[in-house]
Write a structure and sequence with these properties.
heterodimer; A: alpha/beta; Rossmann fold; 6-stranded mixed beta sheet; 4-stranded antiparallel beta sheet; 12 helices; about 20% strand; globular; B: mainly alpha; ABC transporter involved in vitamin B12 uptake, BtuC; two-stranded antiparallel ribbon
């Protein structure tokens, strides 16, 4: 159940987005991918999920190659994801957003369900019960019949993660799950994600919120300019001078560092004030 | 956890009474029709054919969110299938039910044929290509004189008959249509509620995210196109059998536009909306018949007012037949 990247490359024309990345992600652990903007974190996620094609190299899940598969085929191999910008089925109800995930396994019997109501009733009830259970886990059961698009932002984030979990995926890819959440919501997210850890599942989180990454992740991959810069435990990552340089520049750029830190602080301040 | 009000927006004090009034009026019309003069029966038959067409097109436009402006092509396929297989034109006189099956098959193929090239298109681009498809079929029919009789059309079609019972008089066609609308309407309603219908909705909402949860959007979309075309084609067979004459002018672009309008006015993606939309757009011109040349103007004004007052259509998407029944028997 291991996800491996083998000499993975992605380029757009002469522009190299991912340059020869090889690593592997073991099940039962939460893996973080961090790195400055433009480092190629989301590209990695998008290639794994089949949204982007791979220029060269290979992505293996449990020995089977995911490259060259269409996006829906990758999903049916057990790779589920969330998006940086929430992408729910807005006009469907919260419950329907989850139920529709059973399509790949239910569509074979769809005609039987349409033509023979008793058969459908029983199977639908079973699917609905499973979805309701998942909604309860995310504390969304009260919204089951509401339109997904009408939910508050934080709830939508949770719903998107719930949707990714319906089919019990082998790989769960979370692209900035904490983006736009307030402290309270981030704390809730952290505890839920920790509870999702399973020996049957590879979890990968791309995230800018360092508190969340450092407290939640067991291993961290640091990306920089499309290359894999560093790999290790949170403590090792924090101690690495390479990583500090990648994020903050060299000691010569002390003014730049200060400016960047100031910027960051200002941004955080704005975000915190907006949330409060 | 806050609880959410899930009742439909139209919910007001008098809405139960209103629902009963509308449903009883519709039932009264259905019961009374066989006893009315032939002219009125023909009007109701026209209404039922358009409801059938609307139910079919609604699968593609309402459920899957793909704007198809060439739907009338499938209607033509069905009508000409009947005209060629049950008339002196080719001197073929196949039984009605067999032709229905053949036409359904041809419609299905035509649906997939249109579906494949437009798989990657959405919105305006899709509308233009499908519009072109509709026109191509009409122009072919208009020009292949040796087969279709060209603009003169094909006349003297056989009377339809099922199990030895002749279906030719307007009242007989009425019963045939009523059975078809009820059976097909029920099946399509079940499709909408099924996992397939949910997948269509997901494609409508966000095609890429739909792929991301494992939906083969190609197959799902082609299923929508094929099912919809099949229903259009069956409607065409019944239309030809009731008119016992077909000509290309019955399949002009304005017919496609009319069916799309019915869906939009009634309530997109809702089978009840299709029925209400058809009732408004098909019966209104009959009611306004005395005003002769003014009626198109009236109709246009009416549509503007309706769309302004109810931009989501007369019936909201979420108010399906199950909600209607619950409303009727609510306390």
């Amino acid at each position: 159940m291991t996800l491996t990247f083998q000499n993975l490359r992605k380029h757009y024309g002469s522009n190299v987005a991912i340059d020869d990345v090889s690593t592997s992600f073991a099940p039962g652990l939460i893996h973080g991918i961090i790195g400055p903007n433009g480092a190629g974190k989301s590209t990695l996620i998008n290639m794994t999920a089949g949204s982007y094609t791979v220029s060269s190299g290979a992505i293996h899940l449990d020995g089977s190659n995911l490259c060259g598969l269409q996006k829906f085929e990758v999903a049916n191999q057990g790779v589920a994801r969330t998006y940086q910008n929430i992408r729910l089925f807005d006009q469907m109800t919260v419950l329907e957003n989850l139920e529709v995930c059973y399509y790949p396994q239910a569509v074979g019997q769809a005609w039987k369900e349409i033509l023979w109501p008793p058969f459908a009733t029983e199977r639908e009830a079973r699917r609905r019960a499973a979805c309701m259970e998942l909604l309860s886990f995310f504390n969304l059961q009260g919204y089951a019949e509401a339109e997904a698009g009408s939910l508050p932002y934080g709830r939508q984030r949770m719903l998107e993660i719930a949707r990714a979990l319906v089919t019990n995926p082998r790989v769960l890819l979370l692209d900035e799950p904490a983006a736009g959440l307030n402290h309270h919501e981030t704390a809730e997210l952290t505890s839920r994600l920790a509870a999702l850890k399973s020996p049957e599942r590879v979890m990968i989180i791309v995230e800018h919120d360092m508190d969340l990454v450092m407290s939640l992740c067991d291993r961290i991959v640091v990306m920089h300019h499309g290359k894999l810069l560093f790999e290790g435990t949170p403590a090792e990552v924090q101690a690495s001078t390479d990583v500090q340089t990648a994020y903050l520049g060299t000691a010569n750029d002390i003014d730049d560092i200060k400016a960047a830190a100031e910027d960051r602080r200002a941004q955080l301040g704005i975000r915190a004030r907006r949330r409060s | 956890m806050s609880s959410i009000d899930t009742s439909v927006p139209v919910s007001t004090g008098g809405s139960k009474v209103l629902a009963w009034l509308v449903v009883l009026a519709a039932l009264a019309l259905l019961v009374a029709t066989p006893f009315l003069p032939n002219y009125y029966v023909r009007v109701v038959n026209g209404l039922l054919i358009y409801i059938l067409l609307g139910i079919g097109l609604n699968i593609v436009v309402g459920y899957a969110g793909l704007l198809d402006l060439g739907f009338v092509a499938f209607y033509a396929v069905g009508a000409y299938t009947y005209a060629l297989l049950a008339s002196p034109q080719l001197d073929l006189h196949l039984p009605f039910l067999l032709i229905v099956v053949i036409a359904a098959g041809l419609g299905l193929m035509a649906g997939i044929l249109l579906g494949i090239p437009v798989l990657k298109l959405r919105g305006d681009y899709l509308a233009i290509v499908t519009l072109g498809f509709g026109e191509i079929i009409r122009i072919i029919v208009n020009n292949v004189d040796w087969l279709t009789g060209g603009p003169k059309g094909i006349a003297r079609l056989d009377k339809a008959s099922v199990a030895g019972i002749e279906l030719a008089r307007p009242v007989e066609i009425y019963w045939l249509l009523l059975v078809c609308v009820v059976v097909i309407g029920t099946l399509v309603w079940r499709m909408e509620r099924s996992i397939l219908g949910k997948a269509w909705a997901a494609i409508r909402e966000d095609q890429d995210a739909a792929r991301g949860i494992g939906i083969n959007t190609t197959v799902a979309k082609l299923t929508a196109f094929a099912t919809s075309a099949m229903i259009g084609s069956i409607a065409g067979v019944i239309f030809a059998a009731s008119q016992r004459f077909v000509s290309p002018e019955s399949f002009a672009l304005q017919e496609s536009v009319l069916i799309v309008l019915m869906i939009v006015v009634g309530g997109i993606g809702n089978i009840l909306g299709v029925i209400v939309g058809a009732a408004i757009l098909i019966l209104m011109p009959e009611v306004l018949r005395e005003f002769a040349e003014w009626r198109v103007l009236f109709l246009g004004l009416l549509m503007i007012v309706l769309i302004i007052l109810r931009p989501g259509g007369m019936i909201p998407r979420t108010f399906g037949p199950d909600k209607l029944i619950r409303r009727l028997f609510s306390r």
